[in-house]
Write a structure and sequence with these properties.
There is one protein chain. By secondary structure, the protein is α/β, with parallel strands linked by helices. It has ten helices and seven strands. Strands 2-3-1-4-5 form a five-stranded parallel β-sheet, sandwiched between helices. Strand 6 and strand 7 form a beta hairpin. The longest helix has 23 residues. The chain is globular. The protein starts with a strand and ends in a 5-residue tail after the last strand.
Length: 213
């Protein structure tokens, strides 16, 4: 019933790596499902939440500047929005067998002993190339996009946990994807989870928690 959280720099291929980790372990993959849960529990139309999610970190990335104005008529505050997301993340961790991407999960679950926290990074040149290719934009636009999304993610983690999202002490493992395939990066994370005693591979489609010393 282990949990792995994945924080990632924009353009580092973190989401694809997280999906592969979940697939290899037979774990549930949770990313934008958090957005769906927040919309449902807050009684907010999903289309409104999805509009906030376009920047790449969704509702989280735009909280500081957008939530109050976007949802003023529904009286949804930044604090209550963060609370709903955090509660859902904690529920996921209690159920276990899950890979959670973003949304401040590394600070929300920071004190749980059955969680491996991973930060995925890449050199800026690699990230510019990836975002330019993925979004069909030029290099200058890609750099602006990277800065916007990373800054938004940083703001949210600071609001949720008063922490710098790039602080290495938040993570058990930092993976630099430069020169690593998605497959290799996923294996690095899985092996770290096993070594940390968070999960134990038991063939295809299953993993179990081991006690952490």
């Amino acid at each position: 019933m282990g949990t792995i959280t994945i924080s990632r720099q924009y353009g580092s291929n973190g989401a694809a790596i997280a999906r592969l980790v979940a697939s290899k372990l037979g774990y549930r993959y949770v990313d934008k499902e958090i957005v769906d849960a927040v919309a449902q529990r807050a009684g907010v139309p999903l289309s409104d939440v999805e509009a906030l999610d376009e920047i790449g970190y969704g509702w989280a990335s735009s909280l500081v500047h957008s939530v109050l104005s976007a949802f003023q008529d529904r009286k949804i505050t930044q604090e209550s929005y963060s609370y709903i997301a955090g509660a859902f993340i904690r529920e996921l961790a209690a159920q276990g067998n899950v890979v959670i991407v973003g949304r401040g999960a590394q600070v929300v679950l920071g004190q749980r002993p059955d969680v491996l926290h991973v930060h995925i990074v890449a050199p800026i040149e690699d990230r510019i190339e990836e975002i330019a290719r993925r979004e069909g934009i030029d290099r200058q636009q890609a750099l602006r996009r990277i800065n916007e999304v990373d800054q938004a993610r940083a703001r949210y983690v600071m609001k949720v946990g008063k922490r710098d999202w790039q602080d290495p002490s938040l993570y058990h493992l930092t993976v630099n994807t430069h020169g690593l395939s998605t497959e290799d990066a996923a294996e690095v994370i899985i092996e770290a989870a096993i070594r940390e005693g968070v999960v134990s591979r038991k063939g295809s489609g299953g993993a179990a928690v081991l006690p952490r010393g």
